[in-house]
Every structure is written in C-alpha cells, then in structure tokens.
Amino acid sequence: ARLLAVRNIAHTFIEYPEFHAVILSCNYMARDVLLSSRRAGPKLLKKTFAQHKQGLVKKLHNSLSSMVHFTIDMWTSSEQKAAYQAIVVHFVDAETRGVAQALLSLREFKGSHNGKLQAKAFLEVVEEYDLRGKVGYFTMDNHDANDTMLDDIAKEIDGLDPVARRLRCSGHIMNLIVQAFLFRSKAKKIQEDEREGIDEA
Fold first, then answer.
1. At what angle do helices 115-128 and 144-156 cross, to 10 degrees?
2. Can you give the pTM of this predicted structure?
3. Strand 166-168, strand 99-109: pairing
4. Strands 99-109 and 82-92, bridge-based pairing
C-alpha cells in the first residue's frame, strides 16, 4: 500500500509478473499472500488509511498539549478549475515529546469556496477526529474569507475568540510588503513622470 501511494503507481502494478518475481525471490512463501488483482489495490489503500487514521486520532487525543493548533490554506488550480483546502494539525507527540504535524484534510471545492463553506468543512474535520474540545490557534493568510471562516467556527466552538486565536502567516505578510515596495513604487514613479510631462507641456 505504501509503495502504491507514495510512488503514485497504477493499481495494475499489482498484477505485474516482474513484481511477483521480485517478491518471491526475497521470500518464496509469499505466494499465498501476494495480491493478484488490481481491484485489491484500492481496498488495501483504504484499509491502510483507516489504520493510520485510527493511530493519528489516538496520538491527537494523547497529545501532551491541552490544545492542538491548525494551519489552514486554500488555493486554486488554474488547470483543474477547482479549489483545495488543506488543514494541517500541530501537536506535541506524547511518545517523542516533540512537536508533530499531520495533514488532516485536503478537500476539493467546486464552485464557491467562501468563508462559510470553509468553516463548514473545517468543523466536519473537527468532528471526524473528535477534536472539538482541543481546538487551539489558527495560522492563516490575510484573505477576507478567513475572517468569515473563523467567525463561523467561533459560533460553534465555546470559548473560541476568532481574533485572539488567529495568527497571521508571516510569509504571506512579507510577500505583501515586498509586492507593495516593488510594484507600488513603480506605479508612483509612472504617476510622477506623467505629472512632469504635463508640467513641461
């Protein structure tokens, strides 16, 4: 399952005689457990995903921090004409005692992806992982839809202050500063040149 997922290999790979030959050369007793049909691929992936998900839920509930925190971003694919919302959770792993993170959701939005719809999607993920009592801080960019999103989330989760719990993305802020410096300065210079041309005329 890991090979299929990580390397994005077609499910027909399971049926390749060459693949079977490699496995059997390592362990001739593997013949009885080798998958032989491409239809087994999706089933194996779903089963493996469910197992890993259960492990992640346990890690999140056993986190050493009382709250878990989220980084949420939305971006649009110009080729597929679809938008995607990524939700990443950050927590302190009880086993390693280190900061850990995991992708909880990568949801596709077709059509509108306003703040209310994003909030609905986030709350569904919170329920799915049973994190309602552990929701902490949010790191997001400065898009207006994120204000609406957090306002709606705050209505559903007791004690959540949408202003205090929101951390701005420093990378996005720096990008805006640089763009303002580069492009607004250029626009200002054009305006000054135009004024000089009018004065000379």
1. 40
2. 0.74
3. unpaired
4. antiparallel
Measured between alpha carbons, how far is 109 from 118 in angstroms, rounded to an integer? 9
What are the boundaries of each domain within the chain? 1-61, 65-168
In this prediction, residues 96-104 reach a mean pLDDT of 96
State the pLDDT at residue 192.
56
Q: Minimal CA–CA distance to 129: which of 84, 156, 89? A: 89
Q: Fold for 65-168, please state it.
A: Nucleotidyltransferase; domain 5 (3.30.420)
Tell me phi and psi for residue 195, to 5 degrees.
Answer: -65, -40
The mean pLDDT of 122-147, rounded to a whole number, is 94
Tokens of 139: 């790191």
Residue-wise pLDDT for 147-184, tens only, equals 999 999 999 999 999 999 998 877 777 877 787 777 76
For β-strands 68-77 and 82-92, DSSP reports them as: antiparallel
- Tokens 């009885």 correspond to 32
Higher pLDDT among residues 29 and 132, named by residue:
132
